[in-house]
Write a structure and sequence with these properties.
It is a single chain. With 514 residues, the chain is of the alpha+beta class. It is 37% helix and 14% strand. It is built from 13 helices and twelve strands. It has helices at residues 2-29, 32-59, 68-79, 129-136, 178-189, 219-234, 295-309, 339-348, 352-365, 372-385, 409-420, 429-432, 494-509, and strands at residues 62-63, 66-67, 148-155, 161-165, 196-201, 206-210, 244-250, 313-317, 330-335, 458-464, 467-475, 481-489. The strands form three sheets. The protein has a five-stranded antiparallel β-sheet, with helices on both faces. A hairpin with a 5-residue loop joins strand 3 and strand 4. Helix 5 (178-189) packs parallel to helix 9 and helix 5 crosses helix 10. Keywords: Carboxypeptidase, Hydrolase, Membrane, Protease, Transmembrane, Transmembrane helix. The chain crosses the membrane at residues 40-62.
Length: 514
């Protein structure tokens, strides 16, 4: 009998503990608006309870189930006529109940000191390890996620890792690898660096269009480059001011294969240092699009048309690339937007062409071949130079289209934490380029409202068949900035996996988790 009672008690205690854990997790995962509603409800209930207790206390003590005040009044009625109820004298009268102390402080009053507020006024506390685990670990069990699930959450101010779910395991990052690509390029070239597309004179009657690696060169910019070239030729910029020329093009800046391992794909043109509008055959600026079979000779032909329109007679346009002579006279040049703007565009719209160009700029800056292999080595070395954890990482490309890429979640959060910190201001474009949930870039159509992270989550997305990743920053409900990376591989539910990662990020944003 006694054993049965003990077991029953233990079961009751465990049930109570489970209920407390569920309540705690629900609280930590709740949005600030939900928490405020619960606080007001609980506060109202507490006020009602206090008022009731105060009223009972004021009425007097109890004795054998009857308030002594009632017994006194009954006795008083028996001793008197019952007509004079206003007298304040006599043995049967009871003093008025004392006024209750205020239950709620005046609006605008100073809050009492509490955990995390004892010092450093205005600095919100970070989440606790237990609190964050309570909020996020159940979400990591979502059935839509693949069998491989890794995660890292880091407090941006202190650099302390708050959540570690196999975060050191290198996995396929998809487009979140662009964070590494952008950081490497910004570190190597600097945010103000601009990529030049030049036109040089290559002997009498010949000009060469030299690709510098700017995939964003537009038709309008090419038109201006042609007009500037025509003006230089007509003004007699050496060798008699010839206005009859042949046109060649130079793609020698890059080496190795131009075609990505995925083959012909609307997500990426041939990786060449000379192209117009990323080789797109439509008017789009980003996203999938039909591409020129070979963007470089297509750019040369477009340049020829514009040069002719500017009054220069073109006798021939090369169909194969040539190499401009060293020290050739420059006739005209176009400089791209600053590298900071290119990095932002690559991240906001997950632009694969720009990402591959950034990877090669890193290689060129560090004296490595501007190829897939050269960029792999250069990006790794550049990140290591920044003190980032690159063990097990592989950068088979700069865009994340390759399934041979490998990046651990801990590297992504380390990259973001370094960009947030003040020691490397050149990396700030990585943060300003992150899509804003519900508003910009690849997150514009995700997160339908604030409770689900709209306007609160800034993150780089990554999606391949069977792969979903998300890495970025949030400011949590207490005002603390956190960086995160959530990664999964092997999912068969692309939409469900993306929604699960979105829920993880929005829960992090809405969570004080203490």
């Amino acid at each position: 009998m006694r054993d049965r009672a003990v077991r029953a008690t233990a079961a009751t205690v465990e049930t109570a503990r489970a209920a407390v854990r569920r309540t705690r997790r629900r609280w930590r995962a709740a949005t600030p608006q939900q928490r405020q509603t619960w606080r007001l409800t609980a506060g109202s209930a507490a006020v009602g309870l206090v008022v009731a207790i105060a009223a009972v206390t004021a009425a007097g003590p109890w004795d054998s189930g009857q308030r002594t005040a009632e017994r006194a009044r009954a006795a008083d009625r028996e001793d008197g006529s019952g007509a004079d109820h206003t007298s304040d004298k006599g043995p049967g009268m009871v003093a008025p109940a004392p006024s209750a102390h205020p239950v709620l402080p005046a609006l605008g009053g100073e809050p009492k000191a509490g955990p995390g507020r004892e010092r450093g006024a205005g600095v919100p506390p970070p989440p606790t390890l237990e609190g964050l685990a309570d909020a996020l670990e159940p979400l990591m069990e979502d059935a839509a996620l693949g069998p491989v699930r890794t995660a890292s959450v880091v407090d941006a101010a202190s650099g302390r890792q708050l959540l570690d779910v196999d975060s050191g395991r290198p996995v396929t990052p998809a487009s979140t690898i662009k964070l590494a690509t952008a950081v490497a390029a910004l570190s190597a070239r600097g945010p103000e660096y601009r990529i030049e597309t030049r036109v040089v004179r290559a002997g009498e009657g010949k000009v060469i269009l030299v690709g510098g690696g700017d995939p964003t060169l537009s038709a309008e910019q090419l038109d201006k480059l042609a007009r500037d070239t025509a003006r230089a030729l007509k003004d007699g910029g050496g060798e008699g001011g010839a206005v009859e020329v042949s046109v060649g093009y130079d793609t020698s800046l890059y080496s190795g294969p131009a075609r990505h391992s995925i083959g012909v794909n609307e997500n990426l043109a041939l990786v060449t240092p000379l192209m117009v509008n990323e080789g797109r055959l439509d008017e789009s600026r980003h996203g999938p699009a039909p591409r020129a079979v070979d963007p470089a000779p297509a750019a040369a032909r477009a340049f020829t048309q514009r040069l002719t329109k500017a009054g220069v007679k073109v006798t021939r346009t090369a169909t194969r690339p040539a190499t401009a002579p060293k020290g050739a006279e420059e006739l005209a040049a176009h400089r791209s937007a600053p590298l900071a703007a290119l990095a932002e565009q690559a991240l906001t719209h997950s632009d694969n062409d720009i990402a591959e160009a950034l990877a090669r700029q890193t290689a060129l800056a560090d004296g490595a071949p501007a190829s897939f292999e050269g960029a792999d080595e250069a990006v790794r070395k550049r990140l290591a130079k920044l003190g980032l954890p690159v063990k097990g990482a592989r950068f088979a490309d700069g865009s994340g289209l390759s399934r041979d890429d490998r990046v651990p979640a801990s590297l992504l959060t380390s990259i973001l934490a370094q960009a947030v910190g003040g020691e490397h201001p050149e990396l700030r474009p990585v943060l300003s380029g992150l899509p804003v949930a519900g508003f910009t870039g690849t997150l514009k159509s995700r997160y339908p409202d604030a409770e689900r992270g709209a306007g609160l989550v800034r993150a780089k997305t990554g999606t391949l068949t069977g792969v979903n990743t998300l890495a970025g920053t949030v400011v949590d409900a207490d005002g603390r900035q956190l960086v995160f990376a959530f990664m999964t591989t092997g999912t068969t539910d692309r939409q469900g996996a993306g929604a699960a990662l979105d829920k993880l990020a929005s829960s992090l944003a809405n969570c004080g988790c203490r």
